[in-house]
Amino acid sequence: MARSAVMLRQACRLIPFEQSIPAGIRISAELVWKSEGWLELSYGVLGRATTGISGLQLPTGLNDGLQQGRRRDDLWTTTCFEAFLAAPGGQRYWEVNLAPNGDWAVYRFDRYRSGQNQQELSAPPTVRLQRGAHQLRLDARIPLDPWWTPGVCPDLALTAVIDRGQEGLSHWALSHGRKPDFHDRSTFLSV
Description:
Layout: E1 7-16, E2 26-34, E3 38-46, E4 65-67, E5 80-86, E6 93-98, E7 104-109, E8 117-118, E9 126-131, E10 135-143, E11 155-163, E12 169-173
Antiparallel strand pairs: 1-2, 1-12, 2-3, 3-10, 4-9, 5-6, 5-11, 6-7, 7-8, 9-10, 11-12
């Protein structure tokens, strides 16, 4: 049976799957779900004072503030912040992808990695970016209507793919199984 609530807030530190991540890089994620139909996501990347976030591959021409992105596939092939929401007790789930330049995608899956479709939104997400020498912060607000059942708290996973250029991609999540599989429902939190 679905759980009913007014608001859910989850803040956490993500952990990398790859063991080769240099010490001193931290990623935090926060989700605020509101029963009236909004999802707010915040991601922070913090680097060491000596190296900062210089190894992080980002789209060119970024400015701080509100980003003017568009729906785009394959965002996970470079730096991308993600959230997965699942209907409690069901197989259906949604994947949200957010790029630092404001590009975005929302997909619906009928079950594990199957039945993928683009999810239509009532309005595109708003994405805001802030950068400093040692940090990057992405904040997004996404409308959940008409596709999410009002008042039902989701099972969730907060994740990130970080492109480190020649060092490759790193996969960050709340927890990992035997491989970096963000679709694995065993890594979702049930609240």
